[in-house]
Write a structure and sequence with these properties.
By secondary structure, this protein is an alpha/beta fold. The protein is built from 16 helices and 15 strands. Helix content is 46%, strand content 14%. Bound molecules: zinc ion.
């Protein structure tokens, strides 16, 4: 069964063949750490986490190197540091840690490598030097710019011609640029910004060179897969290709390019001015992270995704159904198994997560209707193996339903359920009903099972 991925560069689905199956490389553009990530920022994290899991299953966990960078030098970071009267690193360390926690709450595995821009200034200066030497970049007024006319394939990833880009460039083009589309590799620092010594004067790197230099140093060129949000295709990824290929004298840069679609908020663009920005940090405090993950994977990753209250509710209900099946099958022992073929086919077809998630319900039904012990064990093992590949059903089923109850409440509920069972055994129906009413008042729903057993869940 072959993994097929949609390659933005080829504008087609292509069978995935790594350059070296013993070291499969994946790079995804990471966060600029100066504030909280919004739910749109979380979409690529969860999408590429699924790809990371799929690759690890296919090639081995130690054979896949996944790098997701941290941009810790940027205008917005400098501005936040000046405004708050803090050193840059106080801002970036704080928000990098929050980012890691929030993404972990969505079930995203930590990447293998998390290179930071400020730890790679030397690598960036080295690459800029090679670009100048190769005639692809030129210094001007304390800046170094990439000469877009020096790279014949410029615009091929995003499907734009250089003429289009010049026509679309802002009217006011910096006077030191040879061509309007040329972009900054190095620039003088403004007051209050971090500054590094460089052969072209003191300054700081541009954003695009950061990813190319970190890829070259940490993964080596060419990498297998480069991913990111659709909005990064131009100019960021276009510029990365130009730099990376020119610096390596025309060699390959990334063998497959993958981009996830936009996320809208109730059919509108998410923006500060509309006041509809949803932060992951706030969402994970309100809703189980797994339900947010389900919602993010509910559309195919290349399709747009509309975030609504209904989507979250439906996602939670879908997981309730699956966890309900697992809870009823609690006593069924499992041994490690492989996900079934139909599920893998969906996932291997350019990560078709909606189809793969739908397969989980079929597997859950097979578990509920299995007639022999052996069939039940096999069905549960297949359901769990498939779900884990998507990063679902990782919680204990009881814990899923009891989420939101503190330890004191859990102990009280357990005592009441035991007392109710005793009352029922003694056929003291008024007392059993009284206890049920007490549980209802606590926000707890009792679910009677076979043989007088009862489980419970927090009511919506
Ligand atoms: Zn990048």
């Amino acid at each position: 069964m072959t993994l097929v991925l949609h390659d933005t560069y080829a504008r087609a689905k292509r069978p995935f063949e790594p350059r070296d199956p013993s070291r499969v490389s994946l790079y995804v553009c990471g966060p600029t750490v100066y504030n909280y990530a919004h739910i749109g920022n979380a979409r690529p994290v969860v999408v590429f986490d699924v790809l990371f899991r799929v690759l690890r299953r296919l090639y081995g966990a130690d054979q896949v190197v996944y790098a997701r960078n941290i941009t810790d030098v940027d205008d917005k970071i400098s501005l936040a540091a000046i405004e708050q009267g803090l050193p840059i690193s106080a801002i970036t360390d704080r928000f990098a840690a929050i980012y890691r926690d929030d993404m972990a709450a969505l079930g995203a595995l930590p990447p293998t490598l998390e290179p930071r821009a400020t730890a790679h200034i030397g690598a960036m200066l080295d690459m800029i030097g090679r670009l100048v030497e190769a005639g692809c970049a030129y210094p001007a007024e304390g800046h170094v710019l990439f000469d877009t006319t020096a790279f014949a394939d410029y615009g091929r990833l995003s499907g734009r011609s250089l003429e289009d880009m010049i026509a679309g460039a802002r009217v006011e083009v910096a006077p030191y640029k040879k061509n309007p589309a040329d972009f900054v590799l190095w620039k003088p620092s403004k007051p209050g910004e971090p500054v590094w010594e460089g052969p072209w004067g003191p300054g700081r790197p541009g954003w695009h060179i950061e990813c190319s230099a970190m890829i070259e140093q940490n993964l080596g060129l060419p990498i297998d897969i480069h991913g990111g949000g659709h909005d990064l295709t131009f100019p960021h990824h276009e510029n990365e290709i130009a730099q990376g290929r020119c610096a390596s004298h025309g060699g390959e840069y990334a063998r497959y390019w993958m981009h996830n679609g936009f996320l809208t908020m109730d059919s509108e663009k998410m923006s500060k001015s509309l006041g509809n920005v949803k932060l992951v940090h706030d969402l994970v405090a309100e809703v189980p992270g797994e339900a947010i993950r389900w919602a993010l994977l509910s559309a195919h990753y290349r399709a747009p995704l509309d975030w609504t209250g209904d989507l979250i509710e439906q996602s939670k209900k879908s997981l309730d159904r699956l966890y309900g099946v697992l809870r009823r099958a609690k006593g069924v022992a499992v041994q490690p198994a492989e996900p079934p073929a139909a599920f893998l086919e969906a996932l291997h077809d350019d990560l078709n997560t909606p189809r793969a998630a739908a397969e989980l319900f079929g597997l859950a039904k097979a578990l509920e209707t299995a007639e022999s012990g052996g069939a039940r064990r096999a069905a549960k093992a297949e359901l769990l193996a498939a779900a884990h590949l998507l990063g679902f059903l990782e919680a204990d089923p009881d814990a899923w339903f009891e989420a939101g109850a503190d330890e004191g409440l859990k102990a009280k509920v357990a005592a009441l359920i035991a007392a109710r069972a005793e009352a029922r055994a003694a056929k003291d129906w008024p007392e059993a009903d009284r206890i049920r009413a007490e549980l209802t008042a606590l926000g707890v729903e009792v679910l009677d099972g076979p043989g007088g057993t009862a489980t419970w869940r927090m009511k919506e």
